[in-house]
Fold:
Amino acid sequence: MSEKLPAIVAEILIDQRPDHVWAVMTSQESVANWLGCMRYEKRVGAVFYMQQDREKAARDDISGATHCEILALEEPTLFKFSWFVPGFPATQVSVRLSAHGDGARVVLEHDGWDQFEPDAIKAIRDMLDGGWRSFVLPNLKRAAEA
Structure:
């Protein structure tokens, strides 16, 4: 058996006050822009979707989408949601916000990979690692600094 896969941990510094970053990070108007999700509602227990197929997303079609349920909204420090495909165990994404000088530090942790056989999930985990680092967190920075 292979060694269990570690959590994805990525961070970014944003040149805005933490309260402003929190508003961008969690408001119904801006989450779709930086996170790329569908049907987001700002409330614990709400389910939103990550649809990779752009045509389906344009039609608001959630078939084949990743499901996400909001687990915590602890203003102004923690936005946490599950990440799963129906029929498979859920992983968790925590986005933590803290002050950093005159700006904010955002740390994203995507964990729960230890419940999967590493050889079966490594490619998906590595793809998500790249997406969080090169797409999602930079999008949050652009949206918050705009």
DSSP finds four helices and six strands in the chain. Residues 8-145 form a domain with the Alpha-D-Glucose-1,6-Bisphosphate; Chain A, domain 4 fold (CATH 3.30.530.20). Residues 4 and 60 are 35 Å apart (CA to CA). The chain has one domain: 8-145.
